[in-house]
Amino acid sequence: MASVVQILIASSPTEAPVNVEKVRAVPGLGLEGDRYWKGTGTFLTHPRKADYELTLVQKEHLDAFAAESGLAFGPREARRNIVTCGVDLNELVGREFRIGDVLIRGIRLCEPCNYLAKQTSSEVLRGLVHKGGLRAQILIKGIITVGDSLSYA
């Protein structure tokens, strides 16, 4: 079953993400307490773009990259908000889905970038191509909790 295994919030671009058990998701803003919610995200634009409200990444891809590269690379290093298990996030581009009671639309892949490479290792640019996660828009507000199931809307 597809589910949320971890939720991470970074209060600023320079702060390390921290684990939270639950978080409020709001259309147009993102996740309460996150750097994009606060308007301080590295890639934030004005007006805000929907694809910066929420990022997701598959635990399976992070684990495989860490094993193949030999790097200590996990969810905190990936700097995505929601870590999932049991779902192919690439399949959700252009689709609506739910995490708990929150309705979300997958917008585009969240490919590794030079910023992430500078923060971690240049190996992410190759090793996480098409495995870096999903950028998504929050359509209906609600609370996302670790353990919530992910289902197609």
Biggest β-sheet description: 8 strands, mixed
The fraction of residues in strands falls at 25-35%
CATH homologous superfamily identity: PK beta-barrel domain-like
The first-to-last residue Cα distance is 15 Å
How many structural domains? 1
Sheet with the most strands: spatial strand order: 2-1-6-5-9-8-7-11
What is the rounded Rg? Answer: 14 Å
Q: What is the count of DSSP helices, taking H or I runs of 4+ residues?
A: 4
In terms of structural class, how would the helical and strand content be classed?
alpha+beta
CATH topology-level fold name:
M1 Pyruvate Kinase, Domain 3
**Mean pLDDT value:** 87
Task: Specify the helix fraction band.
Answer: 10-25%
Shape call: globular
N-to-C order of helices and strands: EEEEEHHEEEHHEEE
What is the CATH-assigned architecture?
A: Beta Barrel
- What is the CATH class name? Mainly Beta
Tell me how many strands there are: 11
Q: State the low-pLDDT regions, or none.
A: none
Task: Give a quick summary of the entry.
The chain is of the alpha+beta class and 153 residues long.
Explain how this protein is built.
- The chain has a single domain (3-148), classed as PK beta-barrel domain-like (M1 Pyruvate Kinase, Domain 3).
- The protein is 17% helix and 34% strand.
- It contains four helices and eleven strands.
- The chain has an eight-stranded mixed beta sheet. It has a three-stranded antiparallel beta sheet with strand order 4-3-10, with no helix packed on it.
- The mean pLDDT is 87.
